[in-house]
Amino acid sequence: MKRKHKVYIKLNLLSLFFIAVSFISITLAWFAYSGISTVSTTVNVKAWNIEFMKDTEVVSNQIVISLDDVYPGMETVVEEVSIHNLGDSDAVLSYDILSARVLDQELDVSGVTLDEMLSHDYPFHINIEVADRYVSHVDGVSEFSVSVSWPLDSLNDELDSKWGNDSYNFQQEELAKQQADPNYTPRTSLQIVISLKAEQFIDSPSSPDISYNEGDMILYDVVNNTRCESISDTCIRTFVIDPNNKISDTNVTLVPDVLRTYETGTFADYATLLNTASASWNVDTRALTIEDVLAVISFDNKHSYLKRDTLSDAIIGKVYTPERMNMVIDKSKQYNGYFTFETESFPYLSSNKCYWINSEYDSTKAYALEKESDTTVKVYGKEKSEICSVLPVLVVPKENLQV
């Protein structure tokens, strides 16, 4: 058996350097911000009080995360900062990667796909996420998290070895510089600077539509094609499955309650089953796809995994672009792979029944959604000849949802 070459890299990971509140904006002014404070100026503004906490301690605007070792097979390391809105104004959260260096290579931070590069293009994986972009002034809370992982089996021994050798040479060069100049501080192999921003919420086309957050429950009458108030045969529970619905979006995508009874059959009958399931409905519907599911569950950078036989589990990671989406899907088909996520994170996608996903796995299998354990759900290739339910996805105009 070919021996797996392991590379162990010593890092004092200044590597994830996030600036927890680089800039806070209030309409007409920018204010440097650290810890808890209230901003007031000569202009008429509301009190602004955003609190950042790590564990039980309030943290300042600069946070240094240090790790002793990053190596193949390491346990996934997660660092989290909770964000509390204690002020009078609603806030929108976002982050910018200000700089990123891997060894001597400065990465281009102007590209929109840098997150995906850090998530997929190295043997180690760095995933950055803000759980909820909108935080209400009424005790609004969100979470900023960074996960760092390095699966033992990456399927790319050449890349593992190259990174290991390059990192070793880089560290030796840094030590040589320190020996030549005792005042020199050796650089870590990896450094990323992130600006976490909290800005006053303003209705604009690109702002998140706070009425339709992913996972929100909406009672919808599928016959009258309108929002309803009490559950009945036609007024059913639905859940927003859009990962980031914006004010400019005219529709909302809803997945109906998975605990209801739907048409069942083989994958060959999918189209017929889908039409039958919604035959009496007066709302536009479509099939549930693997892209729908991945776009949602990949936002969990701690508990959503790609699992493959004989290989280490890997965090799914960022899938912002179609190219990355296809890459991740292709990876799932290797070594009898499948995806898992925690029931607690996405309860509206959890059921004891299996549901077909209208996406083929291979010539004999199609993707299906099914509970794996009491705490996890799997998205895997199921034989097309087996029996599962079909779940229609509702595409609803926002004007039909106005109260």
Supply database-style keywords:
403 residues, disordered N terminus, globular, alpha+beta, 14% helix, 8-stranded mixed beta sheet, 5 helices, single chain, 29 strands
Structure description:
It is built from 5 helices and 29 strands. The termini are far apart. Strands 2, 3, 4, 7, 10, 11, 13 and 15 form an 8-stranded mixed beta sheet that branches. By secondary structure, it is an alpha+beta fold.
Quick overview of this protein structure:
The chain is an alpha+beta fold and 403 residues long. Helices cover 14% and strands 35% of the residues. The chain contains 5 helices and 29 strands.
- Uncertain segments of ≥5 residues (pLDDT<50)? 1-45
The percent range for strand residues is 35-45%
On the 0 to 100 scale, the average pLDDT is 82
Q: How many H/I helices?
A: 5
The level of helicity is: 10-25%
Shape from CA axes?
globular
Largest sheet composition = 8 strands, mixed
Alpha-beta classification: alpha+beta
If you compute it from the alpha carbons, what radius of gyration comes out, rounded to the nearest whole angstrom? 24 Å
Distance between the termini: 65 Å
By DSSP, the count of extended strands is 29
